[in-house]
Amino acid sequence: MELLLLGTGAADGWPNPFCTCASCDDAVRRGEIRGQTAALIDDVLMLDCGPEAPRAALRHGRNLARVRHILLTHAHADHLGPQALLFRSWVAAGFTVDVVGPAAAVDACRDWVGPDDPVRFVPVAAGDVLTVGDYRVGVLGARHKVFEDGDAVLYDVTGPDGARILWACDTGPLPDAWFDDVADAAFDAVFLEETFGDRSDLSAGHHTLAAFADTVAALRACGAVVDATDVVAVHLGHHNPPIAQVRRRLSGCGARVGNDGEVVRVGASGCEYGTGQRTLILGGVRSGKSRYAEELLDAYPAVTYVATGGTREGDAEWAERVALHRDRRPESWSTVETSDVAQVLRSATEPLLVDCLGTWLTARLDLHEVWTGGDLAAVEQDVEELLTAWANCAVPVVAVSNEVGSGVVPASASGRLFRDQLGRLNTRVAEISDSVSLVVAGIPVRLR
Q: Residues 69, 74, 235, 325: which is the catalytic one?
């Protein structure tokens, strides 16, 4: 099963476009703009279809031409945009789409469908189990409502390959009896909403950070979440603290933040990190680029830090830099010192932080003795190998690199050679990255 997160934000997204709170300002500075939460499974099944979801699919490189099933959790406006059914009717799809959901949500769609449109409405309620195409769908209760109890549900979805997920959005903390329905489920992935951060005064229909941790603990206690389960927070809103704090706090309960455009490959034996998570961080010297790159990965329980600079005998200043970087990394991270970054990218089984491409390039120039007249073509071949491995890396990967060329022209030929080669390398890595940011004076600026 492949699941694409079309959005991971609350009803108003994150940041709220009308807000200037610290949380929203931080999200803007980081360029982390989250749309309304929805997901696409195997390109054929949608989990919710709010007004932003169809366009989000296109932004993330997909279209909805193959969608045969839409599972609606409820009729709130960020989860249901029935006009999508009208737009679909303008194209000859050639097959019927199932619209599954609570009766109130399904009824809200009927006026958007013509009498001959190939749409099948399937009202459901908590406790129902049905087959939707190649998927087994269990309908679960939600502590959430639009107008009355029972008009919102959650979904337990098993794919044709046996992969099983829990889609728990929207809901507040659930009663003890609810967990009986998912006991020993051993989900491969759980997508659980976390909307309110530390604001326990707002509503019982959404999770705070503390309630999220409690729900995850209850899912573990009943066997619904096991060691291999990927627990992902979605429906994130600006009542949360800044995202770096959210990542750290979620990691305490074995969960992580979901990201818009993230692809999760869910298998019967657990989850594999998907594509759509290649991030390039650029910046000048002491700009904060490495610290920001570390923040992007600090929610993962295990990360491999790929140090491309190695050691420099007799260089005390370099040793101090290395020590500062090492001391601020979590103890659960492992470190690999190598300039063979392509091999690490090909064989990785956990998230990677490559720091940095500038020292990697220096090592390759040294290896091929380019400074003293060696063949630059060998370095270019190394670059091609790196780019191929970067494009096909199967885990989340963040690479740090120096932004060059904004200052004076280097006085030496070797300095100009390095500047030109690194500038070209940065450009090519950026072309095949899903996210690119430039860090200036400690402030990340999202470029893509």
A: 325
Neighbouring C-alpha atoms within 13 Å toward the C-beta of 73: 31
Instruction: Please report the pLDDT score of residue 238 as a whole number.
Output: 97
Is 325 assigned a catalytic role?
yes
- Pick from 26, 19, 22: nearest CA to 244: 26
Q: Could you give the CA distance from residue 326 to residue 323 in angstroms, rounded to a whole number?
A: 5
For residues 85 and 98, is the Cβ–Cβ distance under 8 A?
no
Query: What is residue 131's predicted lDDT score, i.e. its pLDDT?
Result: 97
Give pTM, 2 decimals.
0.77
Q: What is the pLDDT of residues 128-144, one digit of tens each?
A: 999 999 999 999 999 99
What is the predicted pLDDT for the residue at 268?
A: 47
Q: Is 122 exposed, middle or buried (0-12, 13-18, 19+ CB in 10 A)?
A: middle
Strand bridging mode 164-168 / 153-158: antiparallel
3-state secondary structure the chain: CEEEEEECECCCCECCCCCCCHHHHHHHHHCCCECECEEEECCCEEECECCCHHHHHHHCCCCCCCCCEEECCCCCCCCECCHHHHHHHCCCCCCCEEEEECHHHHHHHHCCCCCCCCEEEEECCCCCEEEECCEEEEEEECCCCCCCCCCCEEEEEECCCCCEEEEECCCCCCCHHHHHHHCCCCCCEEEEECCCCCCCCCCCCCCCHHHHHHHHHHHHHCCCCCCCCEEEEECECCCCCCHHHHHHHHHCCCEEECCCCCEEEEECCEEEECCCCEEEEEECCCCCHHHHHHHHHCCCCCCEEEECCCCCCCCHHHHHHHHHHHHHCCCCCEEEECCCHHHHHHHCCCCEEEECHHHHHHHHHHHCCHHHCCCHHHHHHHHHHHHHHHHCCCCCEEEEEECCCCCCCCCCHHHHHHHHHHHHHHHHHHHCCCEEEEEECCEEEECC
Omega prior to 123 cis, within 30 of 0? no
* The pLDDT of residue 276: 45
Q: What is the pLDDT of residue 274?
A: 46
Residues whose CB is less than 8 angstroms from the CB of residue 180 and which lie 6 or more positions away in sequence, other chains included: 222
Cis peptide bond prior to 170, omega within 30° of 0: yes
Nearest to 34 by CA among 5, 61, 58: 5
In angstroms, rounded to a whole number, what is the distance separating the alpha carbons of residues 152 and 76? 9
Average pLDDT, the chain: 91
Distances, alpha carbon 96 to alpha carbons 48, 68, 119, 186, 287, in Å: 18, 7, 5, 32, 54
| Mean local confidence (pLDDT), 98-107 | 98
